[in-house]
Amino acid sequence: MCMTDELRQHHRRCAPHLTTLRVLAAEPGSVLLAPASTGAVERALLVVLAEAEAAQDTVVGAVAARGDGPSAAARFLSARLTRLRSAGDDVLAAAAAGDAPALRRRLWMFNSLAEAMWTVQISFWTVATPLLAAAGRERASRRVLHES
Fold first, then answer.
1. Helices first, then strands: H and E counts in the chain
2. Which of 25-29, 40-44, 61-65, 66-70 has the lowest average pLDDT?
3. For the chain, which end, N or C, has fewer CB atoms within 10 Å of the first or last residue's CB respectively?
């Protein structure tokens, strides 16, 4: 399986849970704050975060295996994942506070950040990785020139 397919598979497993969050965000406040709904929100958040983290590990591992300098990729993707986790914490805090309008806003923010995370991960692999490989080849050729 190629890397893009593997990333898309993580996204496919995550998509129904993102849909659940979007549907719940559109519900009236009384439905949104019902215990069954808040439980569904928490379960969906956990799945989305787990899949995003697994996809990140896949990308960072593949970049490291190619020898293309995993530290920059890891830092960049880690910052995105940290922001997504923080948005998830905000969703849970709004649910615990019983604040339906805040919960709705935070659900939309989490959903937007999660979709952006998938776009970045897939784009990173398809666009940035070849650029990193080219930069690595250029560094290697400079080393050869300096050694000779």
1. 6, 0
2. 66-70
3. C
What whole-number distance in Å separates Cα of residue 127 and Cα of residue 41? 33
Q: What is the mean pLDDT of the chain?
A: 83
Please state, as a whole number, how many other Cβ atoms lie within 10 Å of the Cβ of residue 10.
Answer: 22
CB 95 within 8 A of CB 38: yes
Judged on CB neighbours under 10 Å (0-12, 13-18, 19+), 107 is buried
Query: Which 8-state DSSP code applies to residue 143?
Result: H
Q: Enter the pTM of the model.
A: 0.79
pLDDT in tens, 102-138: 999 999 999 999 999 988 888 876 765 565 556 555 6
Distances (CA, A) of 35 to 13, 18, 75, 137: 24, 19, 37, 55
Number of other CB atoms surrounding residue 39 within 10 Å: 11
